[in-house]
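Message: A physicist's question: would you kindly supply an amino acid chain plus fold tokens?
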Amino acid sequence: MENSFMDNSYSVKVGEDFDLKLSKDTISSLDLIKNGEGSYHLLKDGASYHIKIVDSDFNQGKYTISINGSEYLTSIHTPLDELIQKMGFAVNAGKNVDSISAPMPGLILDILVEEGQEVNEEDQLLILEAMKMENIITSPRTGVIKKISVSKGDAVDKKQLLIEFQ
């Protein structure tokens, strides 16, 4: 299966005002030299930039960087991050959710929980086959399963209710 939706570009947001897309080719063509742990020198269009990574949260894609002494909060999103967001999944968005709906049309391959069962955040709830891939749907929060609205073997539509929490 070809991943044509993955355009190999990264969305970079610096502060509140500056958004750009960088392709892997653009990144690899940069005149960037690592000159220490988390420290870099960049030459771009005849200008010299001293860049230091001050703080990083890789899992969230958030970094505080210093460019020539000025600090900026940046976020970097890969094509996969953007796909996950478009599919309706978002990091930390599910802390207060009451239910889980299908992120895409597919087939329920397996249900890994029962009504009344206590689950923790990230516990596996069910397996949804979509686009010839098995997708494990995990719990967005700690809670108790109130109702399971589908059965193994069911075909589901995008946004169809799958599981409700108490």
Remarks:
- The mean pLDDT is 82.
